[in-house]
# Entry
Amino acid sequence: MLTMILKRAAMAIPSLIGVVIVTFLLTRALPGDPAAYFAGPAATPQAIQEVRVKLGLDKPLIEQFGRYVVDLGHGNLGNSLTTGQPVLTELRTRLPASAELTLLGLLVSIVIAVPLGILAATRPNSLIDHACRVVATLGVSLPVFFTGLILVYVFYYLLGWAPAPLGRLDVFFDPPPQVTGFYLIDSLIARQPELFMASLKQLILPALTLGIFSLAPIARMTRASMLAVLSSDFVRTARASGLSSFTVIVTYAFRNAMLPVITTLGMVFSFLLGANVLVEKVFAWPGIGSYAVEALLASDFAPVQGFVLTMAVMYVALNLMIDVLYGLIDPRVRLEA
Amino acid sequence: MKRREFLKSMTALTAASAFSASAPAVWSAAKAQSRQETLLIVSESGPNNLDIHGVGTNVPGYEVSWNCYDRLISHEMKTLPNGTPYYDKYKFKPELAEDMAIGDMSVTFKLRKDATFQDGTPVTADDVKWSFDRAVTVGGFPTFQMSAGSLTKPEQFVVVDDHTFRVDFMKKDRLTVPDLAVIVPCVINSKLVKSKATEQDPWGLEFTKLNTVGSGAYKVTNWTAGSQVVLERNENWKGGPLPKIRRIVWRMVPDAGNRRALLERGDADVSYDLPNKDFSELKTDGKLAIVSTPYSNGIQYIGMNVQNPPFNDVRVRHAIAYAIPYQKIMDAVLYGLAKPMFGAPAGAPIEVAWPQPHKFNTDLDKAKQFLAEASVSNINVPISFDLGFAGVNEPIAVLVQESLAQIGVTTTINKVPGANWRTELTKKTMPLFENVFSGWLDYPEYFFYWCYHSGKSIFNTMDYQSPAMDALIDGARSAAATGDKATYDKDVKDFVDLAFTDMPRIPLYQPYVNVAMQKNISGYEYWFHRRLDYRAFAKG
# Structure
């Protein structure tokens, strides 16, 4: 097991190096001059040049790249020019914000999609099956910001059930002391149940939006996988042996059908993490997606590079975790490798 | 079965409690009271730096500086016909200085003896000199702004004694004293910042980026970039009467629709960058208080590069000026929320004022006539605009494109991202573009100096070079400095007339600053910087 993990990690290193080089070049190739942007509306060409020197942008590309790599080695991802903070500090707060939202969204999605998929598989071509198909299609074809805005309109503006879409916490609460960056966990660690409830309330609507959007792949994958497994021999044997329907479906069939579902979950998670910018914009969520987009619009290199690097590392780690999980769920995968 | 029942009931319980408490965070009397003492402002973007002297500080950063730092002097307020308090550009009021004596080539300020910085250190003339030296030395926007009032060298700033400070003039300039009341010459706690300075950062810019260290009415207690700014009242503020609001929470909410929803549901108190359509709807709804005030000394215009064909021919410029769909822009883009700068009656005299409307109106026949006279046809140019203000710029570009097509001028729309817009403007190569400019100092000669004077002026985006115009602007500036009203009036009328005859840029309208507030909020004041002044607000 350990050797497998180490081997996989080693294989990931060349791709990480490639990511570092490519992001560096891409951000430098972007049109737009951060020096002009930051010198401000009233800048003369001389003032812009001053700012350019101050930002270190007048040095040759190789030198800039060299400095970037050295900084990376020290864990210094540079400073954001738009917010003025070190990129690493910002990523440390913004990544958990997005991760918490995405995980909860995924949870909502699983809770709805998996049972729906299982039901659809056990009753093919019935009403439930068609309902599953419709729900999944609707969820994925409506743009995610549209779903978000509709939910805000109905549940906040019209009904007043949901709290104001003002971000992670209401105006009167201070965030819990940072341990993991996940407000739900940190508030429990700090023994503040009121803070926990407040964070949960703010999370519900955006998590629901993300969940609705990611229903489709999970539901369809569960359904397809279950269908394949349900027609296999061992299920026929289990049924013939007189085991209850529940035991057959959940204990035997679903456990075997889980593998493709886990892969899909992994893909959906990493896709959601970066692509939930729009949800972050709608709910004023201080997440990593909107951070990267704002930096991009300002031709602010450091956060964009930091973001791409973080995403690449997370994706590699996620895939590694899924491979390990595979081995745990299905020993045949582990032994074959 | 029992376990399933238990799980079901637990889920139901969590769901119910999570959706409970629909009223906006009013669970207890304590909360209600603190909501009363807090002002919640929502806007699309927030500050990137709390110090206006910082590198690349954006406009929301100016708002923080205005409220957290004091300046030597400020302005009195006058009242507009619609009841809005408006800053009086001619009347100054003491803030940190309790007395101002304007001499022939200098102005001397006597500082208040009881003013202290937020950490308790008293404010002295040394702090003022250090702050002003910083403003003229750091470069970029703050230095540029100081130079607009002929404040350029640290030698001009003299400490006479602990509470007396003198500014020497390099030359006579009417704008020197008003330039001391803008946001840039703020007074910073020099001892504290000097202790945080390093060799690479002699002015302590890294420290003041994240901390407010002034003597102003508010201080920033919490700043999460891109998310929120929390300000608390400075109980020892001496620059004026103590503000009524104890705590300001400024949240960044990117979605305009949500900002409107927050306002309408009463969960936010103030917002001022909603789309024009929302403002005009909210005005008619009547549930909120909407205040619209014209930008002081500000105009949205269509600019043309006058050095290169086809717009180097004044007849072509007149043709374009006749082809702009002015009224359509006012109606469809601004929903009437702007002051038209076009269509003045034919015989109306030129005033000694700026902005003022020009006499052009939409007349496609006249436009075609002028094009024919200039014997120019088949013009094909891009029309560029700043994507950072796409909400207004894009529909204007589309309407202009459509109208110009009718006189045979083809245009392609060129959207320039906000980060590149300054670079493009500086290059002065765009043939046709739209832009907005407004000056903090509300004087015609100030506007014209930056926008129509030849030479290195960056706001002269049309690359307009006219010795006649330069002479008139220079004449107006020196007449203002010496108090020669007759010459001043004549020069101003002449340079405005010349601007409307040569038409290097076509003024469209004077934009409005639109602010939406709950009905129980009072104390909104219009300032030249167009941002909020928290010190006058009151709730309930």
User: Anything to note?
Assistant: Chain B touches chain A through 58 residues (CB under 8 Å). The two ends of chain B are 56 Å apart (CA to CA). Chain B is about 35% helix and 25% strand.
